[in-house]
Design goal:
heterodimer, A: alpha+beta, two-stranded antiparallel sheet, 6 strands, B: alpha/beta, eight-stranded parallel beta sheet
């Protein structure tokens, strides 16, 4: 059980807010589409803060401009992976950016056990820190 | 004497006259060239000049051009051994500053436009650039006061600088944080906490929802807390908070010290402990800043710069230099973060001027915009973007204004607004993060968040008691003083002139 104020993983733009409804998600999709950004859906059961590459639920939807269609993809991913973390990322291809411009979580497991901090005492008083996910002790697909 | 030698004597006489020993007016020495068209490779500077009584503006401008390039007080024949026309800076335009002079509150001032050839400057050296442009000339007797207002840096010169060690894009990718301002706080009290107590503040603030905590500019290594203790306890706090939230977190470890050797030692120690970010103060000097920027690029470290000291020369309008020039030099020198004003907080800042600073730090090119204090079109030649930092007297109740004025690529630092929260530091951090996320959500939904901001925050406060407490405590606090540094322009001046 995570002990921060919301008792949850706080990655992404909106983790401190109540879970977004489909209407609220659609509003965010519209914002991305208005800027010409391509939306991708990704999922994982290893939410380590430095796990950059969540699995893609298909490529970013460069040619899909209809928020209802994108929401359908999101909901299919949530249905396929109900106990995974699912995030929506908006990719900006503009010169000088060429990077994600939005990223927010739209699905998370019912129970979030969080992370252990492993300390390796070293010379002097230095400590090398490792963050280990409790859930990721189990094999992929069997977590949460 | 033959005819041909007569011709040659007459031909020489203009030059001979020019280089006759003695003192000439600067306009006569070649530093005033109203017909000059600057080259794309020229560095162009606008100075605000207050001439001494009896010195006409062209002579004052020429004097500034002369003293910031090749001239000395008297004619020297050794100029004739050089391509001196090239090396002379050329004052080519003088405009009276609106609302100065007779009938106004201030003495008559002028904007002088001066062009410098690229060969006057060493590649990749802010020190060399500034030794000319803000060197001896600022103490020159023929002018009462002098202010460096803006500088157009040619692309050819920009390309000799590294630029930000990390830049906004890479910083966000490393942090895995997109689409919202980053949140920070400066540990308070600034001075006196032991390393152990200091780390407590860092842990609480990060666990509560901040992305960064920061050393203050004057936290280095004092009797109450040595730097190694601070680094060790802060990294324990950062890693504990990261494990508690699943987010990448950081603390700006200030490596400012008395010598470069000490700074490198501190930076290496920060790296060995796994810190993602270090910090330096502007007062360490341009060369030290460039050295640390190169170190940061080599070591995958984000480099935060605190602008300690800048107000000694940037705040008064008639003398010194405008902060926008510091922004330009720091983007070239290679820092990733710089404090650049809040608009609504406790420190100096006119909204339009601050937009000029922020654009200078973040945009790929900035068009001339007198309204924002930008005199020139500036192409940034793909130098990375610097993340501005807003710090000083800001709180969660101003979130709508902060996002409106400063945008999303900014670090919002709520020091007192986090640590002074009535329910504790974690609650203070949570209040700030909830205010931020709720306002970004509203903005993206297309709501008129600037106008509706207070209501949006009150609605969120219904389900978030830390935010409610923050608004109850600071909701009405504001700092409404007139700015001293504002733009001087008349929108129709050119048309009516």
């Amino acid at each position: 059980m995570m002990t921060n104020i919301g008792a949850r993983l706080t990655q992404g733009q909106f983790s401190f807010l109540p879970d977004l409804t489909d209407v609220q998600i659609t509003a965010q999709l519209n914002y991305a589409l208005q800027h010409g950004w391509a939306i991708g859906v990704e999922y994982t059961d290893d939410p380590h803060p430095r796990n950059t590459y969540w699995d893609m639920y298909g490529n970013p939807m460069f040619d899909l401009k209809d928020p209802a269609g994108i929401l359908k993809e999101i909901n299919q991913c949530r249905k396929a992976f109900p106990r995974h973390y699912v995030r929506v990322t908006a990719f900006d291809a503009t010169r000088g950016w060429e990077t994600p411009r939005m990223s927010f979580i739209v699905n998370r497991p019912a129970v979030e056990p969080g992370f252990a901090l492993v300390r390796e005492e070293r010379e002097g008083r230095s400590i090398r820190y490792t963050i280990r996910s409790y859930a990721a002790e189990k094999p992929e697909g069997e977590r949460y | 004497m033959s005819n041909s030698s007569v011709v040659s004597v007459v031909g020489k006489s203009a030059a001979a006259q020019r280089y006759k020993a003695g003192v000439l007016r600067y306009v006569e020495m070649g530093y005033w060239q109203p017909d000059y068209t600057p080259l794309d490779t020229d560095l162009i500077v606008v100075f605000r000049i207050t001439p001494q009584a009896g010195v006409d503006p062209e002579e004052a401008a020429a004097a500034v051009a002369g003293e910031s390039s090749t001239a000395t007080w008297t004619v020297v024949w050794t100029d004739r051994l050089t391509a001196c026309e090239l090396y002379r800076a050329k004052a080519y335009r003088v405009d009276a500053v609106p609302n100065t002079g007779p009938g106004s509150k201030s003495e008559q001032q002028y904007f002088a436009w001066i062009a410098y050839d690229l060969d006057l400057f060493e590649e990749g050296s802010i020190a060399n650039l500034t030794a000319s442009i803000i060197g001896n000339v600022f103490g020159f007797k023929a002018i009462k006061a002098l202010r460096l207002e803006d500088m157009r840096v040619p692309v050819a010169y920009l390309k000799t600088f590294q630029g930000p060690a990390t830049g906004i894009v890479v910083e966000r990718e490393r942090l895995d944080k997109f689409g919202r301002p980053l949140l920070g706080a400066t540990t308070k009290p600034k001075l006196g906490l032991s390393g152990r107590n200091y780390g407590r503040v860092v842990y609480e603030a990060l666990k509560g929802g901040l992305d960064f905590v920061k050393d203050d500019e004057n936290i280095n290594s004092q009797p109450f807390m040595g730097w190694r203790d601070r680094f060790l306890y802060c990294m324990e706090a950062v890693n504990r908070a990261s494990a508690a939230t699943g987010e990448v977190k950081g603390h700006y470890l200030n490596v400012t010290a008395g010598t470069m050797e000490d700074m490198y030692e501190r930076a290496e120690f920060a790296k060995s402990l796994g810190s993602i970010i270090i910090m330096i103060d502007l007062v360490i000097g341009y060369t030290a800043i460039q050295s640390m920027a190169k170190w940061a690029r080599r070591n995958d470290m984000i480099l935060h710069l605190h602008r300690a000291g800048n107000s000694t020369y940037s705040r008064q309008k008639n003398h010194g230099m405008n902060f926008r020039v510091i922004c330009k030099w720091m983007r070239m020198a290679g820092v990733d973060h710089i404090h650049a004003g809040t608009v609504v907080g406790k420190l100096e800042g006119d909204p339009l001027m601050i937009k000029g600073f922020y654009d200078t730090l973040r945009e790929p090119r900035t068009p001339a915009s007198l309204e924002h204090g930008l005199f020139f079109d500036q192409d940034w030649a793909s130098l990375r973007k610097v993340m501005p930092v807003a710090s000083g007297g800001i709180h969660a109740g101003q979130m709508h204004q902060l996002i409106h004025y400063l945008g999303e690529d900014v670090v919002l630092q709520f020091g007192g607004g986090t640590i002074g929260h009535p329910q504790g530091i974690q609650a203070g951090a949570t209040a700030n993060r909830v205010a931020l996320e709720t306002m970004i959500q509203a903005r993206n939904e297309g709501r008129d968040y600037l106008r509706e901001g207070p209501q949006i925050l009150r609605d969120a406060a219904k389900w978030c008691s830390p935010l409610r407490a923050a608004i109850d405590t600071w909701g009405e606090v504001s700092f409404n003083y007139e700015s001293t540094d504002t733009a001087d322009f008349v929108p129709t001046a050119t048309a009516s002139a």
